Amino acid sequence: MSHPSRRGILKLTGGTALLGTLALAGCGRGEDPVAKATVRPVDSSPATGTVNVWAAQGDADVLDKVIKPFKAANPDVTAKFTLIPNADYYTKLQAAIAAGKGPDVAQFFPESQAQFLDPSILRAVPDGLVEPGSFFTSLWDAGVAGDVAYTVPWYAYTYALVYRADLAEKAGVKAPTTWQEMVPFFRSLQDAGARRGLGADNGWDIFNGQDVAMYAWQAGGSLLSAAGKWTLDTPAMVDALKYNASFFTSGAADTSSPTFLDAQPYFVAGKTAAMITGPWVIGQLDTAAKKNGWTASHVATAPLPAGASGNASFSGGGTWGVLAGSGNADASWKLIRHIVRPSTQVAQYTAYGSLPAVVTAWDDTAIAGQPLLDAFRTQLKNSRAFPRVSTWQQVATRLGKETEAVAKGTRTAERAASNVQSYAESLGTGTG
């Protein structure tokens, strides 16, 4: 399986405020004619005309080939793909939307698409286009705002525990199932020969913030209240920050290494023995080891250990939406409908390793025959969507910095949680 790292999937952009302005312009527009018109069902007649599709480089690189059956069944439609580097994708998309020159169809990321979920930007998903229950719940929920669905899930990922099975066997230990077992597990892997039990991600950025938010869920916390207020200064968040810091204070992980790009070489070399990471790693370790079959004989996966309230993870991946200004919405939705069919999802996995957002597609032998993916499927069934507010990326980034201070012992978890709460309150949620 080939897949870009999560740092290639989600990028902060300087254009958030621009899209926030556009979205606010549409807030409260219950009678918006575009939104109301596009909920009409899409029929089964052949698609026609041109559909301009914008996507980030990566999973979409193979899509033009994957949809050959769609093009064969719809000879009068032309799908034009524009692939944009991840680092520039949202910035260019935002600018195009602001200028009224956006594509018909655009790819989004469920972790960071909240700023686009508005009728002034995206059309509502038509009634009956897809069955919402066919997707992993959290991925579908990530595209819903104000009880309106704006995006359709395409591919999926979440986090699980990836560890050196050979070292665990040598140490005589099994994968941890609770928070309390985590550090002892890492120490056992160190006793079996690893320099560090955990190869932590030390960017101290939005991704570390997402990790701690995930731990807060596991501790019984929430990030937003039912009334839409930030709830970050809570005992659950304090517990989450302390849990994350325990990896470092125990000596199981190092606050300075490995760097993100070093994570896999360190893991293969035994400098680290575990990662809390996404499924793309599975397809990359043989390359890092320079040996086919290394992963199968050295690696195991497991769902995340549970805190006081379970082991919920977060859902990530890719989604599709049709822009409000699309001149060919009918063909656009028909293309999206084809992309999320189980057979197309399997073809996408075979071509690139993108794991399906449609649950039944995981039953295909191409995926079901990969035992190291089982933990990720299990975890996707127990995952949540991050807050669907435009300021979440900024809040998560600040949380990542506070996480660093706690891990390095320069700030208490209580103070860090208070700082994040104050910062989040100063930003608000960006809703109109």
Low-confidence stretches: 1-5, 9-38
Tell me which oligomeric state these chains represent: single chain
Main β-sheet description: 5 strands, mixed
Strand order of the largest sheet: 2-1-3-11-6
Question: How many structural domains are formed by the residues?
Answer: 2
Q: Give the end-to-end Cα distance, rounded to a whole number of Å.
A: 41 Å
**Proportion of residues in helical segments:** 40-55%
Q: Tell me the β content.
A: 5-15%
Total of helices:
20
- Stated plainly, the CATH topology of the largest domain is called D-Maltodextrin-Binding Protein, domain 2
Descriptive report:
- The chain is α/β, with parallel strands linked by helices.
- It folds into 2 domains: 6-158 and 315-377, D-Maltodextrin-Binding Protein, domain 2; 160-313 and 391-427, D-Maltodextrin-Binding Protein, domain 2 (3-Layer(aba) Sandwich), CATH 3.40.190.
- Helix content is 41%, strand content 12%.
- It has 20 helices and 12 strands.
- Strands 2-1-3-11-6 form a 5-stranded mixed β-sheet. Strands 8-7-9 form a 3-stranded antiparallel β-sheet. It has a two-stranded antiparallel ribbon with strand order 4-5.
- It is globular and about 65 Å long.
- It starts with 5 loop residues before the first helix and ends in a 5-residue tail after the last helix.
What's the SSE blueprint?
Layout: H1 6-9, H2 16-26, H3 33-37, E1 49-56, H4 63-66, H5 68-73, E2 77-84, H6 86-98, E3 105-108, H7 137-141, E4 144-145, E5 148-149, E6 152-157, E7 160-164, H8 165-171, H9 179-191, H10 206-218, H11 235-249, H12 263-269, E8 274-277, H13 285-289, H14 294-298, E9 299-302, E10 313-314, E11 316-322, H15 329-339, H16 342-352, H17 365-368, H18 374-380, E12 383-384, H19 392-407, H20 413-427
Parallel strand pairs: 1-2, 1-3, 10-12
Antiparallel strand pairs: 3-11, 4-5, 6-11, 7-8, 7-9
